[in-house]
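Contributing new complexes? Match this layout with iron/sulfur cluster.
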Amino acid sequence: MKVVIRRFREGKLQEENFQVKVERGTTILDLLYRIREQDPGLSFRAMCRAGICGTCAVKVNGEPKLACTTPANGHGELLIEPLDNSVYLKDLVVEHKDIFARLKRARVRLEAYKETFVKPSDMQKLWKSKDCILCGICNSVCPSLQTDREFGAPSTFTKAFGVVEDPRNANSEDSLKALLPLDIQGCVHCKNCDIFCPKGCSPEILIKLLEGKMLKKGYIQKREEDFGFLGF
Ligand code: SF4
Ligand code: SF4
Ligand code: FES
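Output block (do not edit by hand):
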């Protein structure tokens, strides 16, 4: 199979072609390892090979995917690129520091615990948030983040939801207030993040729930929609 790698080298993205053998069950990550046998200088990131560590996200034929869980067969030709909306480091490797810096800024952590009985139904509510592996795919397809770097990022709000709603959080109110500088209303609800999230975390839904909670508590005000052109 012909595989084109768009890699970041010498300050720009450059395309290089490879021929790789692909069988049934070969993943994009297997294929990258095979290409590295031909070109030992090829850089990409991967650890768990099981869709858990969140490090291997790349673009495959234009769509962001986890390389380790995406089959390589069934395509005539493959184009593999680094994620969009990211700082490129080398070849397919992008910077992940921004994801963690945003979590830190939003204080996405349990700062005060309370002992309480946690019902399975309470935890069920948190699953989408807890399943997030911080792969950065949602951020790479978020138009709000592309135009407004102050916007908190879907990955931040996804993780924050699990902290705000955690029944063991003794300071859930503070956890919610810590999100106020992150312009949650900057989300344009395009649902790109829900569509491409490989873990089904539905960041847009979690953003809507957090936003609703902030509105209800009066921490933010409903923004007027610009329907002026309709004349009412
Ligand atoms: S919400 Fe989904 S796409 Fe975004 S970082 Fe978490 S796992 Fe990745
Ligand atoms: S729904 Fe909101 S957070 Fe998700 S990609 Fe669109 S603008 Fe970004
Ligand atoms: S290598 Fe860990 S998620 Fe792909």
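Reviewers usually confirm one structural detail per submission. For this one: Residues 2-94 form a domain with the Ubiquitin-like (UB roll) fold (CATH 3.10.20.30).
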